[in-house]
Write a structure and sequence with these properties.
The chain contains three helices and two strands, in the order ααββα. With about 150 residues, the protein is mainly alpha-helical. It has a two-stranded antiparallel ribbon. A hairpin with a 7-residue loop joins β1 and β2.
Length: about 150
């Protein structure tokens, strides 16, 4: 009888050890999977951040280029459409000139004639436009549906 009790205790002990090892293995695999998923997500976010930074730098270079053309042209841009067309990218849908906050030139012009607005009076654009003017900063905002 004692032998049967010992065998049962050994069986129960082995079963508990096997179950505990199985649970530890499942938890370890789960935690490893979560860790791998976090790492993949972090890497994807890093790539996205790099791409956004690159896009912003390219957009700033468009602004800087237009600024240089304005300086060279004594405050005017001759052949604005051709220059804007060469600068436009897939993430910049419109290039506009707004001396004193009033949009005077838009590329592409077709269908965007109603976009010639006073940025300081437009409710959607006013706050950022005023901030840029008041702090002598380049500002970006949007996306906006173009006024057409």
């Amino acid at each position: 009888m004692r032998l049967i009790i010992k065998q049962r205790l050994i069986f129960v002990a082995v079963a508990i050890i096997v179950i505990a090892a199985s649970v530890a293995s499942v938890v370890g695999s789960y935690n490893n999977g979560i860790s791998n998923q976090k790492e993949r997500t972090r890497l994807m976010a890093d790539v996205y951040i790099q791409r956004l930074n690159q896009d912003f730098q390219e957009a700033i270079s468009i602004t800087t280029t237009i600024e240089q053309v304005l300086i060279d042209g004594g405050g005017r841009i001759h052949h604005f459409d051709q220059i804007a067309e060469s600068l436009k990218t897939d993430y910049v849908s419109s290039i506009q000139l707004a001396p004193a906050g009033v949009v005077t030139d838009i590329y592409p012009a077709a269908g965007n004639e109603a976009g010639k607005i006073n940025l300081f009076e437009d409710e959607e654009r006013k706050a950022i436009a005023l901030y840029g003017r008041d702090h002598n900063e380049i500002t970006a905002q949007g996306p906006f549906a173009l006024k057409q």
